[in-house]
Amino acid sequence: MPISESKYIWMDGKLVPWQEAKIHILSHVIHYGTGVFEGLRCYKTKKGPAVFRLKEHTERLFNSAKIYRMEIPYTQEEINRAIIETIKANELEECYIRPIVYRGYGEIGVNPFGCPVCVAIATFYWGKYLGSQATEEGVDVMVSSWNRMAPNTFPAMAKVCANYMNSQLIKMEAITYGFVEGIALDIFGFVSEGSGENIFLVKKGKLYTPPLNATILPGITRDTVIRIAKDLGIEVVEMMILREFLYIADEAFFTGSAAEITPIRSIDRIKIGDGKVGPITKKLQEEFFAIVNADKEDKYGWLTYL
Predict the structure, then answer these.
(1) Which of 8, 79, 198, 216 could pair covalently with 222 via S-S, beta carbons 3.0-4.6 A apart?
(2) For residue 219, is it within any domain?
(3) Is residue 187 a contact partner of residue 148, using CB atoms and an 8 Å limit?
(4) Could you tell me if 61 and 188 lie in one domain?
């Protein structure tokens, strides 16, 4: 999906015109993938624009940076304020938000310590990540031939640029074979996640999802769905999931800030359940969108109004 340009991008404390938001070609991040980032959404609600789970996303950004020994030259509160400032400057009622912390121009070579830690925040309109009808009709996906990284290689808990080379292989393979998305297994053959989403399955009224030790990103929307499900009295089971369990699930769906809650209607050309949005997935969608659109009480304080 082409980028929908806005007016400004926040870069190291200043709002820079969109077309002038540039870095040097020899910046460390370009050559070695030394960047950590976030993806979150601002929703247009009846009470005004509101960012969903802003604090949690910024906390994960700082956790990712900490894992990679990157000292962010701002506090979490300053980043939160900068995100809101950028949304307002771009006069957006709803948008996708992309903060990124990266090693900039300074030295060449694998050692990153001689390069400055820079921060940028972009806000722009972005529609449904997996297609305009994905949340209503579901998507067709495949199990990828590419595995997720092994533990103690690339930290899966960090949302780092380098990890998304693995995600790109999964995504490109899926598209090449006529699917919308791929599901990666971990190195032991258990279900991990999609190229940019966590995954849930429904079987006999219970909700199943891989645990953190399946080398998944600790998703904010994943956590949201788990909490909503428990509020609805749906049992949530975090366990290692066999590939074949995917095929016999009653329902399946992806979660993510970009994907939100996207149903999966088939995996490897095998229809999941009735091949359409299942009742539990639908209920979770309804609850999720009621909260993010401020149609329901925000009892967890997940919305930050501009």
Answers:
(1) 198
(2) yes
(3) yes
(4) no
Strands 40-45 and 206-209: unpaired
Domain boundary (97, 124, 151) is at 124
**Residue 299 designated active-site:** no
Structural domain count, the chain = 2
Q: How far is CA 81 from CA 7, 107, 305, in A?
A: 18, 31, 12
Amino acid 253 reads F
Q: Could you tell me if 196 and 236 are in contact, meaning their C-beta atoms sit under 8 angstroms apart?
A: no
Among 7, 22, 88, 159, which one carries the catalytic annotation?
Answer: 159
Whether the Cβ atoms of residue 90 and residue 6 lie closer than 8 Å to each other: yes
At 222-236, the pLDDT tens digits run: 999 999 999 999 999
Q: How far are the Cα atoms of 30, 177, 180, 271 from residue 174, in angstroms, in the given order?
A: 26, 5, 6, 17
Residues contacting 8, CB < 8 A, separation 6+: 15, 16, 17, 18, 86, 89, 90
Domain termination residue (choose one: 124, 151, 169): 124
**CA 188, CA 220: separation in Å to the nearest integer?**
25
Cα Rg of the chain (Å, integer): 19
pLDDT confidence band for 133 (50 / 70 / 90): confident
DSSP state of 213: G
- In tens, the pLDDT along 152-168 reads 999 999 999 999 999 99
- The pLDDT, as a whole number, for residue 132 is 61
Q: What is the pTM of this model?
A: 0.96
Name the least confident of 53-62, 78-87, 119-128, 263-272. 119-128
Predicted local confidence at residue 99, as pLDDT: 98
